[in-house]
Structure formats: structure tokens, C-alpha cells
Amino acid sequence: MARGEIQPGGLPGDSAGGPRVPILGRAALASFVVTLMVLEAVSRTMIAPLTVRGGFEQFSALVEEIRDAGHSPVILFLGTSHVQCAILPAVIERRLGLERGAVLNAGLGASAPYEQMRLYAAVEESLGSARLAVLETSPLYFNRGLANDARLRLDLDTRLHYPAEVSKRADWLAGWAFSIWDRRRTWRAVATRAVRSALGHAGLEWPVFDSDGYPGIPGAPSARGQIAVDADRASLTLFERYSFDDEAVQEFAALLARIRGHGTRVVLLEYPLFPELERFLETRYPDVKKREAAVLAGPLSSYPVLSVGHARAAELMADFRDAHHLTRTGAARFSAMLAELPEFRAMANAARVSATTSR
């Protein structure tokens, strides 16, 4: 054999199976990539039409929790993350003498009337028997800029059918097709849903609410000195591109009418904001509150608007986790204030009388 010539068997020490390692590695990598692509494709057909922070897993978990409860709430709270963070059902139940489970916190993070209608419709058989429905009134509901940003991250059906200008719809469809700036959860949401389902079948719980009916809120509260800075940043983020959303008003009115159609008493509730954010709104974006007030005095005028009042809301100063969300301690305080309002006491009395009569 000539010098330097490599024998057919390869270099000394090589095994016959040596070349298989890189082949298997490439096959494993290809399988991994294909699996992710399949999961992404599947999730694009399964993802619930919700905003990015709401997400498929939050929506589906809340729907399952309501269905599994096996009963209808007496008092239903429906709204955004403001509701999630501010309502502690057990406090209201204890104050009003109601059984555990009579008050439901159905807040859905980053939602708007469009998403809340989808939630209500999904569990209408359970929520339709509620005696009192308390819906959030907020200037965030009617901000087209905020809503459009959120819906960039939604499913194809929403992007095709939600009211929008031609240029905006083209932008949405491009975002769906290329997924370059689409930050909504996709295959991860489906995987989370599968894990939750598997745990359920195994008899294990992954509850949405704790024993007091309070949902798990991710993230840690801001430091006390940071909240004023958060308020400034939040006002810019939420209202810098404020544009009044007529479609959101129509959707909200339709949701209220649908709930009322079941014989449920429907009221609106103002949730507390950090005072700095309130001041920023009044000075920088006065049109926001004016437009909201016009809606409440116009198309929504048949629905009472409840409030604990500025004096009581001021007692919550130390209980904000950020510029517009309460901590759990704040939720306990705010819920206790709500339980003192005549609307809640009257509904609780009626519920107790009905329960006694039916026995």
C-alpha cells in the first residue's frame, strides 16, 4: 500500500458505526425542526382569538374552570386584568353571607369587549343564570390603537373578519403569514393546554383560582417609589396613540344586552387607578375621559355605574402592584368596599331568600 493511503476500513480505531453519529444527529435536528413547524401550524388553527397577554391557555383554563364548577355564580365580575387583580371573591362572599363560589372573578388579562363576548358565549350556560353581572368600565376599552396592536397577535379568522381598514387588514395578514412581529403564544399555548389536560386526566389540579377564588397573577409588584414612574410610562404606552374605537363601543353594548337578556342585573364598575395615572390622563389626554363619559351617558346610559368614590379609593394608595393594578391585599380592601354598596347587598339578600325558598 502506498505511503499516506488510507485503508478501506478507515483510520485506526474507527468503528464501522462511526459515520452514523452525525447522520443520526442531523436526523434528530430535522425531526425537531419539523415538529416545531407542525406545532406552529396546528396552533395557528387552534389558538383562541385573544390578545397576547390573555392567550389561549388563560382563555381555555378559565372556560374549563367555570364549566367544572358545576354551578352558576350569583355575582359575576367580567373584564380585564383590572378585574383579575382587584376582585377577591371570598371577601365579598363572607361580607354578604354567600356560599363559597357564589362570586366569580372572570377577568381576562388584556381583553376587550370582543374577547369578553367570546368568553361569555363559551360558557353562557353557566354564566347566564347569574343574578348580578358587574362589568368594568375603562377608557382602555375604547382605544383603537391599543386594540389593534393587541389583535395583530391573533388567529387568522380574527384578522380576516374583525372590522379594519384595508391597509390595516393587509398588515395583519402579513403578520400572520410571516410571523415576524407576531408575539402571541402559538405552539407553546397548545403544549400548555395539553399538559393541563393530562394533569386533569391524572387527577391532578392546575387551578386557575386559589381557595379564595383569586386568580394567579404573574410578576412581582413594583416597588413603592417606582409606581409613579410606571404611571408615566403606562400613560404613554396606553394612550400615546389614542384613537376612539366605535366598534368596541358597539361590541360592549352587544355584550351588555346579551347578558341582560338572561334576566341578569347588569351594572358597570369603575376600577381604581393610581392617582398619578389619573392625573396624567386628565392633563395629557383629557379627551380620553371625555369620550368615555360620553359613551356612559349615551349608548350605555341604561346601565348604572358604580364606584366606591374617590375618598375610599384613596385608601388603596399603598396597595397598587403597578399604575393600574391592585395587589392581593388591595383586592381584599377593594372587595370589602364593594360589598358595602347597596347593589351588592340587595342582590345578596335576594339570593339568600331564593335559596331558603327552594329548600
What do we call the CATH homologous superfamily? SGNH hydrolase
User: Which band does the percent of strand residues land in?
Assistant: 5-15%
Overall pLDDT level: 78
Domain count: the total is: 1
Low-confidence stretches: 9-13, 46-54, 180-186
CATH fold naming: Rossmann fold
Strand order of the largest sheet: 2-1-3-4-5
Give the H and E element order.
HHEHHEHHEHHHHHHEHHEHEEHH
Number of helices: 17
Report the major sheet. Answer: 5 strands, parallel
CATH class: Alpha Beta
Give the oligomer, counting copies of the same chain as homo and different chains as hetero: single chain
Give the C-alpha Rg.
26 Å
At CATH level 2, the architecture is: 3-Layer(aba) Sandwich
Commentary on this structure:
This protein is an alpha/beta fold. It has a single domain (about 35-220, about 245-275, about 290-359), classed as SGNH hydrolase (Rossmann fold), CATH 3.40.50. It is about 55% helix and about 10% strand. It has 17 helices and 7 strands. Strands 2-1-3-4-5 form a 5-stranded parallel beta sheet. Strands 6-7 form a two-stranded antiparallel sheet. It starts with 19 loop residues before the first helix and ends with a helix.
